[in-house]
Design a protein that fits this description.
Elements: E1 7-17, E2 21-30, E3 43-44, E4 48-49, E5 51-55, E6 60-62, E7 66-67, E8 81-82, E9 97-105, E10 113-118, E11 124-129, E12 156-160, E13 162-164, E14 174-180, H1 181-184, H2 194-205, E15 212-219, H3 226-248, E16 252-258, H4 277-283, E17 285-292, E18 316-326, E19 329-338, E20 344-345, E21 368-371, E22 377-378, E23 382-383, E24 399-400, E25 405-412, E26 421-426, E27 433-439
Parallel strand pairs: 1-11, 15-16, 18-27
Antiparallel strand pairs: 1-2, 2-9, 3-4, 5-6, 5-10, 6-12, 7-8, 10-11, 12-23, 13-14, 13-22, 14-17, 15-17, 18-19, 19-25, 20-24, 21-22, 21-26, 26-27
Helix pairs in contact: 2-3
Length: about 450
């Protein structure tokens, strides 16, 4: 669990439903003294389901499928709602358990596990089981269809993760992004997919500079000839260049380059020489670097904002639990303990698009970021099918009960392969927390 509410998600399992769907199922256990429903923690098909899956090697996020028909077992249900079991709306009595089922689009056949992110609970990587697994309990939601994909609001999209330099440590200020190619393009193609437009738009909204240079670099895996991969990587970078230029406008200079299969970030093969699909997926990528023009102060980057220290001196004490290097990402978890005799709020609100009155992205209490060796920041990754970031407690359930502990977590872009330590910045506190980086 990550909230101060006494609930647990037990025995999570992922089971394929044919080639198009994937079921997530877990036991929602109420360990408290009062009734509570999964919807109370953000798993509410009538409004929004704050539950996602992440294919780590492919850098791809998955939101729930939708269904064209109302759920007869949920009062007030209508068409085009999340494909979720009726138990998401059911009050679970103290000491009782209910099975929750959510249906997502299926990842590629070579995907073997997914990182499960459900609001109110800490993340966990879960293996994918084959269709027909006895681990999957029957539920009516497993027998209804999913709606056709909505190209304007696709449930599958790349994760957008930003790394920002400190303006005092780098002139001009620089922001970099990495996008996986598998969602932007079909295999072997340089034509942008329907979901690519939203991902590029989300990336553009994280760029605070108003002028400067944008460099787009394309990379491929090792399948194919050097010449073909070089040409494909440049064509893909050029396609992204055209799309990002249409969004950012003429005040930037744009440059597209292709590196083919050079500069891999993961092995294309295993040590025994066999194919490594996950490694190849990580190598198929497009990287963007934004160098703000010298003297561009019209919209300073988020790292220049005054730190939020509203939680210093309160009974709320943060402590890093783990910082884990995952394939292509970094997962941080911080436990915040309330040693006082009254419930306390962090002042946390999960919205990666919010900005303050001065146009600078807000830094709320309990929000996590990672301080780089150069003084910059890694910000939590964004996922375009939702307005909330990939970090804990999207419903804003940020109350830490007296004597209790709340776990805040966030998913970030990758750290350098040889980095063994990092400073974790917790919104509301002036002092960063040093942490060791563990391998996932």
């Amino acid at each position: 669990m990550s909230t101060g509410v006494r609930v647990a998600a037990r025995d999570p399992r992922l089971v394929r439903l044919g080639t198009t769907d994937l079921a997530l199922q877990f036991e929602f256990a109420n360990q408290g003294t009062e009734s509570i429903s999964p919807a109370d923690l953000g798993t509410d098909p009538l409004t929004h389901v704050i539950a996602f899956l992440v294919d780590l090697p492919r850098g791809t996020g998955y939101a729930t499928q939708r269904t064209p028909q109302a759920n007869p077992d949920i009062d007030g249900s209508g068409p085009d709602e999340a494909r979720a079991s009726a138990t998401t709306e059911k009050d679970v009595a103290a000491g009782q358990t209910e099975t929750v089922t959510l249906v997502f689009p299926a990842p590629p056949a070579e995907a073997t596990s997914m990182l499960v992110l459900v609001d109110g609970f800490v993340p966990v990587e879960v293996p994918i089981q084959a269709q027909g697994s006895a681990a999957l309990k029957d539920d009516p939601v497993l027998h209804v269809p999913s709606s056709p994909p909505n190209e304007l609001d696709p449930p599958v999209a790349p994760l957008v993760c930003a790394t920002e330099t400190d303006p005092a440590a780098a002139t001009p200020a620089q922001t970099s992004f990495r996008l996986p190619s598998d969602v932007l393009f079909a295999f072997g193609s340089s034509t942008l997919s329907p979901s690519a437009a939203r991902a590029i738009d989300a990336l553009a909204h994280q760029i605070t500079a108003t002028s400067g240079t944008v460099t787009i670099a394309g990379y491929t895996d090792s399948i194919g000839t050097d010449a073909d991969n070089q040409a494909l990587s440049l064509a893909r970078a050029s396609a992204v260049r055209q799309a990002i230029a249409a969004t950012l406008g003429p005040d930037f200079t744009y440059k597209a380059v292709g590196f083919g299969e050079t500069s891999p970030v993961a092995p294309n093969t295993h040590q025994d020489g066999s194919d490594n699909p996950d490694g190849r997926a990580r190598n198929r990528r497009v990287e963007l670097t934004v160098d703000a023009a010298t003297g561009d102060t019209s919209q300073p980057p988020p790292t220049s904002e005054a730190p939020n220290v509203s939680l210093d001196g309160t009974p709320l004490t943060p402590a890093v639990q783990t910082v884990t290097a995952l394939p292509g990402f970094t997962l941080a978890q911080v436990a915040i303990h309330n040693s006082g005799t009254a419930d306390r709020e962090l002042g946390y609100y999960n919205d990666p698009n919010r900005v303050g009155p001065d146009g600078i992205r807000a830094d709320d209490g309990g929000e996590l970021s990672l301080a780089t060796a150069t003084g910059g920041r890694l910000r939590p990754c964004a996922f375009t099918p939702s307005w909330w970031g990939l970090l804990a407690n999207g419903t804003g359930a940020d109350t830490v009960p007296a004597g209790g502990t709340l776990v805040q977590w966030a998913l970030f872009g990758p750290l350098p392969a040889n980095q063994k330590s990092i400073d974790v910045v917790v919104g509301g506190y002036a002092k960063a927390l040093p942490a060791r980086v563990a391998s996932g």
